[in-house]
Amino acid sequence: MSMHWYVARRVAWAVIATYLILSITFGLLAVAPGDGQTAFAFKAATQGGDVDEAQETFDEITGRDEPLLTRYKNYMVNMATLNWGWSFTRNQPVLDAIAQAYPYSLMYAVPATLISIIAGYAIGLYSATHQYTLTDYFGTFTAFFGISIPNFWFGIMLILVFAVDLGWLPSYYQTGRGVWTVANAKQLILPIIVLSTGAIAGNMRYSRAEALEYVHADFVKTARAKGADDWRVLVRHIFRPALVPLMTILVADILGLLFAGAYITEVVFQIPGLGLLSYKAIIQQDTALVMATTLIPVFIAIIGNLVQDIAYTVLDPRISYGDR
To answer: What span, in angstroms and rounded, lies between the C-alpha atoms of 36 and 85?
Structure first.
């Protein structure tokens, strides 16, 4: 099977998976209570508007006054054309709300992701090549500590120590301080620490376990016997074969950092990113905004798995296209 045919098949499966997920999401939204109509009418009533008129307006905007099949067709067309609806809590299109929130999530999620991957893999590889030493024990302890400690509690403790008691860093995020400024960097330090701690621990554990399978392998001993230095042995003969199974957790790790961790981190530090946006949308029953913020991780997971499958064949030539 050629590389082009393999990629075409994976892309086709990604399209089918996306279609199924969108269909299931539509079905859940169609039968779920609390579709936002009550909240929309309540907001109109508090502003002196007519409740019945507000409910009719909501039905017209969301298409609830149309047959189910028509609503499904319009839903799929709107998703394909990136017309993801209107956020009545923010009085703007959903995509505009996401576009405004997403840069704030990336400002701390990207550094946390890079730090967790580099530091986690480096500590794991070093611990595997120095098994049963003090550094190995310290790395293992750090991994268990990072995995066990709750992020929300850790974030609050960091705020109490470094913001309240010492006054070194801000206790919450403030907008309007620019992106590439010292003030913005200072208020991102604590969120990055909270978000990367658990990910570093997870990457360290997985990379150590995978590297231990190759530390005493015959081809590693052969490389050392031929005079290869420690760095070449570590990178070319231990890390590269260990990287193939590590790729399976890389996508999940990034998703966990960007979205699962974002909910906790952004609520604790009041960062106006995607996590806080989704959290407020759930509280305020903004259905269109909730749907968009929950579908984005799904789309990234589908694309990530596609890239991951292709990367397998690049990292390990033994994997044939026909067996995938």
So the answer is: 13
